[in-house]
Amino acid sequence: MHVTSPIPHKRARIEIIPLIDIMFFLLASFMMVSLSQVHMKGIKVNLPTGSSGETQSKRDYISVSVDKDGHYFFDKDEVNADDLQARLLKVHQSDPEAKVFVRGDRDTVHGNVVHLLDMLRSAGFYKISFEIKSEALKGVPGSGT
Fold first, then answer.
1. Residue 133: inside a domain, yes or no?
2. Low-confidence ranges of the chain (pLDDT < 70)
3. Is residue 77 part of a domain?
């Protein structure tokens, strides 16, 4: 004999609308985090500030730095002037359209930055950008440019 239950039998359902909301939230969160990450290739220097600075894309670029003591850095490697010139020539031969970002310490002598610019020009680079700290981002922690 088959006895039926007075409680109606319902099939289990999985509601996907809340799952879709969660997935969109996670997607948006991961996109915002990945866009806010900055890959720093240069050494930490005390950059000067400027009011007319623009944020530029830093993909496939060369970072050349000079600190307050006049030491030169190619990306994060400290090099002397002759080694820096050789590296710049090698990079220019492999990619003549490479972007160059100059990071000059605010407290360095003006002649050090001019000498670095002269080395870049003699290697063949003419598209050179100077990194500065933007006054708009001055109070924001973690803002480097």
1. yes
2. 1, 37-60, 134-145
3. yes
Closest C-alpha to 132, from 75, 35, 55, 70: 55
* pTM (predicted TM-score): 0.54
E-only strand ranges, the chain: 49-50, 61-66, 72-74, 77-79, 99-104, 128-130, 133-134
Q: Which residue, among 81, 122, 78, 80, has the nearest Cα to 100 in the 3D structure?
A: 122
Token couple for 27: 């997607």
What is the reported pLDDT for 140? 46
| Per-residue pLDDT at 24 | 93
Q: How far apart are CA 124 and CA 100, in angstroms?
A: 11
Residues 6+ apart with CB under 8 A from 6: none
Query: Is there a domain that residue 18 lies in?
Result: no
CATH of the domain at 86: 3.30.420.270
